[in-house]
Amino acid sequence: MGLLQKIVRNEATRSDPPEIYNARVVLISFVACGGALLFGMDMGIIGGVLTMDSFKRQVLAFGAPLQDSLLTRTSARQYGLMDQPKTALANLESNIVSVIQAGAFAAIGIASSVNPLYVSENAPRGIRGLLTGLYQLSIVTGLTLAFWINYGSLLHIEGHSQYIVPLSLKAFPAAILFVGMLVANESPRFLAQRNPDKALDVLARLRNLPADHQYAVQEMEGISRQLEEERALSVNASGFTLLKEAFTVKSYRRRSMLCITLMMWSNLTGTNAMTYYSPRIFASVGLSGSSTGLFATGVYGIVKMVSCAIFIVFVTDTLGRRKSLLWTGIVQDLALLYVGFYIRFDPPVVGESVSAPGYVALVAIYIFAAVYQFGWGPVVWTYSSEIPPARLRALMMGMATASQWLFNFVVAKATPSMFATLGTNGFGTYFVYGSFCLVMVVFAWFFVPETSGIALEEMDALFEQDSLKDRLVFRKGPRLSSRESADDEVIDKKDAEHVEVA
């Protein structure tokens, strides 16, 4: 029994040939997640750079009079430079993060949609959840590296290079992804659509089996059979037709909205606000000084990384999706509310040591980071990739990714203004995100059915249940074929349209 089979114990890992759980497929998954590593470093580095005095001196000195010249008379420039540095800095932070998000749209945005699909199409069934979870783990690993890069730069580098070096180091994960993908294989599923003979060879190599091995042949036959069914369903189906089905067929509409809203709620937890502006957040609970704030941010990254690793290796396939979303939302809500109340009623005093309630607030922030990795971080990616029907999987995953980036941008843009306007040290910001966490729990309770242990082929049957109670108590078992049921609805709608036209 291999190491992966010892770590992940389920029916598939016990019955499948041990050769298929090999280092090759794990290495390919890690390389493919280079885009996620870049995503994490991108988010983490900018948060630290914005707190560096060298960055503020060079950029703010230019940005403040420029903004002032655009908005007021020339005679007001001196007033703007002297009395409005906080407002200018808040606007500058927001605009810089927005530019980064716009640049990430083409590169990291595409990778965030393609990477999970590529990994899932290469992964053996028994460890698909684990390998797909590497995407989230790579994000938090990138965050952790970014936090410690910022901390090291602040301690050991002087001048403008202090922020230029961290920004430049983001090129390394991009290079790893580029070089790795040059030598990596296309997924067997992709090749099966264009070159079936080569697809079998690639699949056998991934599974570390001979091309004529029964397991490899049967898996290839299953892929080919599924593709034939998809082709039969997609004859003369344009992109607009598929998009229309995603929102007009009841079963599909429920899943489309879940993919979109789960990604929205994942961002509205405030986790990316914590990531982008973590040094400022730690300063608000009493950790003054750039080096202290960046050190605390580095610990924050380690907490996220370790928590995510524990979840995807030991918990992801046992605890369940719904339960994970419910309990983590409650804990995140309580953690944020405590931090908000602490800053409101017992704020830290500059120059004094951190009080006992302040240390509790610090622990609350770390708890928030840890439990996010047990629920609203990795679970939403897993859920969004497993509930779509084969016919609309790429479309729904694309919509989920678009929602992720849209609300990532919204949070990044809104948070500096929230810190500046919602009370002393922005205590109201924590109440806003804490309230979102509470609403998320209610949403998950009423609208998110459990999918753990349910075969992909049964997802249509699950989401065709009209009653909320029926969806929540749904259990796997002999049911109408998912494709037959969903496709019947598609056919009925098309027939109705023909009759209406006639």
UniProtKB/TrEMBL annotation:
Task: Select a single GO molecular function from the record's annotations and give it.
Answer: carbohydrate:proton symporter activity
What is its membrane topology?
Multi-pass membrane protein
GO cellular component, alphabetical, reads: membrane
Ranges for domain Major facilitator superfamily (MFS) profile come to 1-452
Superkingdom? Eukaryota
| Signal peptide location | none
Q: What is this protein called?
A: Quinate permease
Q: Which organism is it from?
A: Colletotrichum spinosum
